[in-house]
Write a structure and sequence with these properties.
The protein is mainly alpha-helical and about 120 residues long. It contains 3 helices and 2 strands. A two-stranded antiparallel sheet has the order 1-2. The radius of gyration is 31 Å and the shape is elongated. The structure holds zinc ion. The site of zinc ion has 8 residues, from loops.
Length: about 120
C-alpha cells in the first residue's frame, strides 16, 4: 500500500513539475514579449534623440558626424527633387516657399498660404 502511495505521490509531483514548467514557459514568453516591446521603444527613442540632435546641430556639428549629416542633407535634397518630379508628373506643382504639393491652378499654397501667382511672377 505504501508502495502505491509513493508511486501516486511521484506521479502527482511529476505532473506538478510539468505544469510548473509550462507556467515558466508562459512566463518566459511574456518576458520576451516585454523585452521586444522595450527594445522597439528604445529604437524609437534613439530615433527621436537623433532627430533632435540633428535639428539642434545641423549648422554646427561635431566633426565625427560630418558623413552622417552630409548623407542626411543629400537625402533631404533628393526627396525634395522627387517631390517636384512627382508633382510635375501628376500635373501639379510644388510651392516654391515651403515645397508642399499644390494644384496647378491654386492661387495660394494650402500649407503655408503663400500667394502662388506672385511667387511665380517674381521668379520669372
Ligand atoms: Zn507653401
Amino acid at each position: 500500500m505504501d508502495f502505491f502511495n509513493r508511486i501516486g505521490d511521484t506521479i502527482a509531483s511529476a505532473t506538478q513539475e510539468v505544469s510548473e514548467k509550462a507556467k515558466d514557459l508562459t512566463g518566459v514568453a511574456k518576458l520576451q514579449y516585454e523585452m521586444r516591446t522595450k527594445e522597439d521603444f528604445l529604437d524609437k527613442k534613439y530615433l527621436e534623440i537623433g532627430k533632435m540632435f540633428y535639428d539642434a546641430n545641423k549648422d554646427v556639428f561635431p566633426e565625427e558626424y560630418t558623413e552622417l549629416f552630409d548623407e542626411v542633407e543629400a537625402t533631404k535634397a533628393r526627396i525634395e527633387q522627387l517631390k517636384e518630379e512627382i508633382a510635375e508628373k501628376k500635373g501639379s506643382k510644388t510651392c516654391p516657399k515651403c515645397g508642399a504639393i499644390i494644384g496647378n491652378t491654386a492661387a495660394f499654397c494650402s500649407e503655408c498660404g503663400a500667394k502662388i501667382g506672385d511667387i511665380f511672377e517674381e521668379e520669372e
